[in-house]
Design brief:
mainly alpha
């Protein structure tokens, strides 16, 4: 028993040290190859997102998700829905307004009878593979071009939804799970993300990073193989290049985080749609539904998913590639990803179960 406690204590110390070093390495910008323009743009975007979040929170206090759709033109502060509130900042505050403006501009020409949402989705899939190819290249400039291409693909992913809502006459921002377009869109998103991930993997395979002490724990030794060393301690691998198996394990962990984030985000969205975006039977329940929507706890339990959804994680790895910090990001996300998702799900489902009891709504 004492031996077991000692091993548990050692593991906790190693885990804490590993997580701390991963955090410090991820956010150490001394060696980031980014210029002042990139930093200024990032700061401006963060301020813009922060201000818009405050405006959205204040607007939610005056509306419900059951209000009639807004007919006065698109605005990030109107026509809100559960899905839109839980989308990442880029999609809500940048991609959506641009897509709405483009669709409104060209809709009178009838072009979207030819350029359908499915055509846009497939175009985004092709761009995803092109982006993956650029990201796998040695030149940082080429990798940055690949990221810009993928950002355009993510805008197309928003555009196909906007085109569908305009052409179908259904302005509500939500997923139509029974339509063929939904499955095409989801499949294109998955394969595009896989293409980007493999681009990052191939880049690290061709140009493997040099291992530092923060990259190693005792259980990682089987993934490493260096000739000329007889010592069996992890220290012998410090300063050597990571093997393909070790790099693949890091990329695989990130892929698992993305899958978990995507599935859990979708489940939480559907749960909140059933609670807050579905008409209830009595006026008393409807009043309670409105009170629940205006609750700060409910808002936070949905809002925090903007940082933990699959789209947000894709944005994070794109920033890491752009800043030439891909390896540091993978070391960071292998721990922070699982911890963050666990916390998000706990917060969300505690509130969901509470609202189900208050509103007498059973799971769908």
């Amino acid at each position: 028993m004492k031996l077991l406690l000692r091993y548990c204590s050692q593991f906790c110390i190693l885990f804490r040290r590993k997580l701390t070093m991963s955090l410090s390495s991820c956010w150490t910008w001394k060696y980031c190859r980014t210029g002042p323009i990139f930093c200024v743009i990032g700061c401006v975007l963060m301020i813009y997102f922060f201000v818009m979040d405050i405006l959205v929170f204040n607007y939610i206090q005056t509306m419900t998700f059951l209000d009639p759709p807004n007919k006065g033109g698109y605005s990030p502060l109107r026509s809100l829905s559960v899905k839109l509130l839980m989308m990442d900042h880029m999609a809500h505050y940048i991609y959506n307004p641009i897509a709405e403006a483009v669709v409104t501009l060209f809709e009178p020409t009838g072009v979207y009878h030819i350029i359908t949402p499915n055509v846009i989705s497939i175009t985004g899939l092709v761009l995803g593979f092109v982006s993956g190819k650029f990201v796998s290249m040695e030149s940082l400039q080429c990798r940055r071009i690949g990221i810009l291409i993928f950002e355009y693909r993510m805008w197309l992913d928003v555009l196909d939804g906007v085109v569908f809502r305009h052409t179908s006459g259904n302005p509500v921002y939500k997923s139509h799970r029974t339509s063929l377009g939904f499955f095409i869109d989801v499949d294109c998103d998955i394969f595009s993300g896989v293409a980007l991930a493999f681009g990052c993997l191939f880049y690290l395979w061709k140009y493997p990073p040099i291992l530092a002490s923060r990259d190693l724990l005792p259980q990682t030794k089987p993934f490493l193989s260096v000739r000329g060393f007889e010592d069996d301690t992890p220290a012998k691998f410090i300063g050597t290049k990571a093997t393909k198996n070790y790099i693949f394990s890091k990329a695989l962990i990130y892929g698992v985080v993305i899958v978990i984030a995507s599935v859990t985000w979708d489940n939480v969205v559907q749960a909140y749609v059933d609670l807050l975006q579905t008409p209830l039977e009595t006026s008393i329940h409807t009043e309670k539904q409105t009170v629940a929507l205006h609750s700060t706890v409910t808002f936070l339990s949905m809002y925090l998913w903007r940082f933990g959804g699959s789209q947000a994680l894709l944005n994070m790895i794109q920033i890491a590639v752009f800043a030439d910090k891909l390896w540091e990001f993978l070391n960071f996300i292998q721990y922070a990803g699982f911890i963050g998702l666990a916390m998000l799900n706990c917060i969300s489902y505690i509130q969901i179960y509470h609202l189900r009891d208050v509103l007498f709504v059973s799971p769908s």
